[in-house]
Design a protein that fits this description.
Blueprint (H helix, E strand, L loop, with lengths): L3 H14 L2 H21 L6 H17 L1 H14 L3 E5 L2 H15 L3 E4 L3 H5 L2 H7 L3 E4 L2 H9 L15 H12 L7 H18 L2 E4 L3 E3 L4 E6 L3 H7 L3 E7 L3 E2 L5 H13 L6 E5 L13 E7 L3 H5 L15 H5 L3 H4 L10 H12 L1 H4 L11 H5 L6 H14 L5 H14 L2 H6 L2 H11 L1 H4 L13 H8 L2
Parallel strand pairs: 1-10, 2-3, 2-4, 4-7, 5-8, 7-10
Antiparallel strand pairs: 5-6, 6-9
Length: 459
């Protein structure tokens, strides 16, 4: 029972995996990331203890979400902010639409935010004739291309310098051989005026801090600070799982996020925003809203075995470690969150029936779990997703019967040894060549099984 999404994924991933240019670009960029991370990780005196502590904090958060979210809301309201609870993407878009309509907004500047991608906010704003401008350089580049972000942290990871040179030359007339610095300066020149003229600034949030009622934003370009400072209205759209209990927890989570996300000891700009501009402050928005987004998160929370997926701090480390992602790329997943963590959470956020196939897009090598800064057991969670897909009869009857037969046979040594290696090789060549042997050499099974050889050797 393949879904349309699964069929598309199989087709596009097969094509992308054997595209030499894509492989060269992505491997080059991920190699640079790996090098940076290897140099940054030693800043932790005991990395495993730090990861374990982060895991425990996130576990405690999920156990007390019903207490921490109201605590955040109460503290944020005390500073003059406004909180909107959105059950799904449509509700979030509609509430944001009301804010923009009341303000008569025509232009919006956006800093990097995966939640806005999740609710398809840009498309919604376009329908409302509101101009939305991405201000993160990577997001700005993929917006010019009319594409979705390729990666959770680095949206334009799939592009080379020559690709961006051609793009800027086409749109802005920059020299075809412009340097990376020159392209960055051009983007800065184009975006500066947008900050000062925009009606509304929209951001995400890396963390929500319960005890202070604050939104913590981490970035490297300063665009989030400009997007939250110049416009009169600031709207932050944040998933409910991003809550942390205390401001003191940032001294753990910020270094973990920056080191695993970009290989930095700490990102360049780290902001803590606790509401609109106060009477004694000289800058900041006149109004600030935080949209607390559910959109399937409580459904995942209800899955006791897989709720670890909500611990994610969106560092992207598992994507960079994953051999599948490094071959098929981010766009083939056709989801907001790609790679191993996307394969884990998307079936719960958007429906197991349509996205169960992503949980099978894994070699189960365990590298994703190894690099996760909050110790999410990702590859185990993917197996549990597969279990649920089978348990809810989302796989075909033929597949269920085939695996049932295989399970029966593989546990019966006499039955396995009854068929010779010659027979087994015949079955492989004639029944599995198309499925397993298209891009690899099929294994050759020995004439006698290991148990038969052992019995003959050790009589």
């Amino acid at each position: 029972m393949s879904s349309a999404k699964e069929t598309t994924f199989l087709k596009e991933s097969a094509a992308k995996a054997f595209e030499p240019r894509h492989r060269k670009i992505i491997n080059y960029n991920i190699d640079k990331y790996d090098d940076a991370v290897s140099r940054a990780l030693p800043q932790f005196h005991h990395l495993e203890n730090s990861k374990r502590k982060a895991h425990i904090i996130k576990w405690r958060v999920m156990e007390n979400l019903d207490k921490l979210l109201p605590e955040f809301e109460s503290n944020f309201l005390r500073r003059g902010g406004k909180v909107i609870w959105a059950n799904d993407a449509a509700e979030a878009r509609n509430e944001i639409g009301k804010i923009l309509a009341d303000a008569g907004a025509k232009t919006v500047v956006k800093s990097k935010s995966m939640t806005t991608e999740e609710i398809e906010l840009n498309e919604f704003l376009t329908e409302k004739n509101i101009k939305a401008i991405e201000t993160d350089l990577g997001e700005y580049i993929v917006q010019l291309l009319g594409q979705k972000p390729y990666h959770i942290v680095t949206p334009a990871m799939h592009l080379s310098l020559s690709d961006i040179q051609a793009l800027f030359h086409q749109h802005f007339g920059t020299p075809p051989d412009a340097t990376a610095s020159a392209l960055t300066l051009k983007a800065r020149e184009l975006l500066r005026e947008q900050y000062t003229t925009a009606d509304v600034g929209i951001t995400g949030g890396n963390f929500l801090i319960a005890d202070t009622g604050s939104v913590a934003i981490t970035e490297n370009e300063g665009n989030a600070r400009l997007s939250t400072t110049f416009p009169k209205i600031h709207v932050a759209i944040v998933g409910i799982e991003k809550i942390i209990p205390s401001l003191n927890d940032l001294d753990l989570f910020w270094p973990l996020l920056s080191t695993h996300g970009t290989g930095q000891r700490l990102t360049v700009y780290n902001s803590i925003i606790s509401g609109p501009r106060q009477e004694n402050e000289t800058d900041g928005p006149e109004e600030m809203y935080v949209v607390l987004l559910d959109n399937g998160r409580t459904d995942l929370l209800a899955q006791k075995d897989q709720r670890q997926g909500l611990y994610c701090i969106r560092c992207g480390a598992c994507l960079n470690a994953c051999p599948i992602y490094k071959n098929v790329g981010g766009h083939t997943y056709n989801t907001t969150y790609s790679g191993p963590i996307g394969s884990l959470i998307t079936p719960h956020l958007r429906g197991m029936a349509e996205f169960k196939h992503l949980s099978y897009a894994s070699s189960l090598c365990g590298k994703c779990s190894e690099v996760c800064p909050v110790k999410i057991d990702i590859h185990k969670m993917l197996l549990l997703n597969r279990r649920d897909a089978v348990g809810t009869h989302l796989v075909s009857k033929t597949e269920r019967l085939a695996w049932k037969g295989f399970t029966y046979a593989i546990t019966k040594r006499k039955l396995i040894d009854f068929f010779s290696g010659k027979t087994k090789n015949f079955v492989l060549r004639n029944f599995f060549r198309k499925a397993w042997g298209k891009h690899r050499q099929l294994p050759h099974i020995a004439t006698k099984s290991f148990s038969q050889q052992w019995r003959e050797q050790d009589k």
